[in-house]
Specification:
Jelly Rolls, 5-stranded mixed sheet, alpha+beta, 10 strands, elongated, Arc Repressor Mutant, subunit A, single chain
Length: about 300
């Protein structure tokens, strides 16, 4: 199992194209910070994207891809001018029909992603507030954006499914680019690329319910126990057992929020021999027994 894939699957990342816009200047819209992760790409013309300060706006040209992480409203417009921005509901309600062949037409796509629970939150927290990717002509991101553009031009059966899957691909590519370029990328991301440490991480993610021990994990990496423990802690900033416990408790919190499993089932899925053992560990880390924690966090 790929560790990044495991994060995405467990975060239940789901995407939806929520707007393809064809408009003419002047235009601008504001998108709320309640959208967890927004993706924007210009298919024709140009656009400016910024958070609070329009003087720090990023200019987007055809093929560029930008993401904005939720928390703060962001703006996209034909010029970095907050005065022309209206709510996204108002923008799409009043945008007139414009022929995409119009030489002054701007065509852009806005998409949104939802990521669930603490697993999803940890991915979002690892991203910068705004990231702009300017792919080269033969870059994978450029190729996917081109596919999206062609799919939008020619409506066909199953088009929404195609667009959803293409957004899935874009999300993975964006995360890769961000984590590869950032000094604040999750430590597990780079550790997972290590041919030896990656085996241990994959094993813990693949079978969080297994009773892993440091010697057993060390054997998977073909390292001695001391060498494995030392290299793991250097790469991830915590011991293998601390990492395993943190991951199990992250999964447990998401299972508790979902409210679909009993405490006994959650304990077994996260590698504890009994509900009592699970409850003791959970309370030690969170200050509440899992049942009471679930009552307080079901809607979070």
């Amino acid at each position: 199992m790929d560790v990044l894939q495991d994060y995405l699957v467990r975060a239940r990342a789901s995407g939806a194209v929520f707007a393809r816009s064809v408009t003419r200047p002047p235009w601008g819209l504001t998108l709320p910070g309640s959208i967890q992760l927004s993706l924007h790409t210009v298919l024709r013309g140009h656009a400016w994207l910024w958070l609070g300060d329009a003087t720090e706006a990023h200019r987007l040209l055809p093929g560029d891809l930008a993401i904005a992480v939720g928390g703060r409203d962001h703006h996209i417009a034909d010029e970095p001018n907050p005065a022309i921005c209206v709510s996204h509901e108002e923008f799409w309600a009043r945008t007139p029909d414009v022929d995409a062949a119009d030489p002054e037409a701007v065509v852009f796509l806005c998409g949104a992603y939802r990521l669930a629970g603490d697993v999803g939150r940890s991915l979002l927290e690892a991203l910068p507030p705004v990231l702009v990717i300017r792919p080269s002509a033969h870059d994978q991101v450029h190729d996917v954006v081109s596919l999206i553009s062609r799919e939008l031009q020619h409506s066909a059966p199953g088009s929404q499914t195609v667009l959803d899957r293409l957004l899935d691909v874009l999300l993975v590519l964006v995360l890769r680019v961000s984590f590869d370029q950032s000094s604040s990328a999750p430590r597990w991301y780079h550790a997972a690329e290590d041919p030896r440490l990656g085996r241990a991480l994959q094993a813990m993610h693949e079978k969080p319910d297994h009773s892993w021990t440091v010697p057993e994990l060390a054997r998977l990496t073909a390292m001695s126990r001391p060498s494995f423990a030392r290299n793991f802690e250097r790469a991830l900033g915590q011991t293998p057992m601390q990492y395993l416990t943190d991951w199990r408790l992250t999964l447990a919190r998401d299972y508790l929020r979902a409210g679909e499993l009993t405490l006994d089932q959650i304990a077994r899925r996260t590698g504890y021999t009994s509900p009592n053992a699970f409850a003791a560990t959970f309370r030690r880390h969170h200050g509440l027994p899992p049942g009471r924690w679930r009552e307080a966090n079901m809607a979070v």
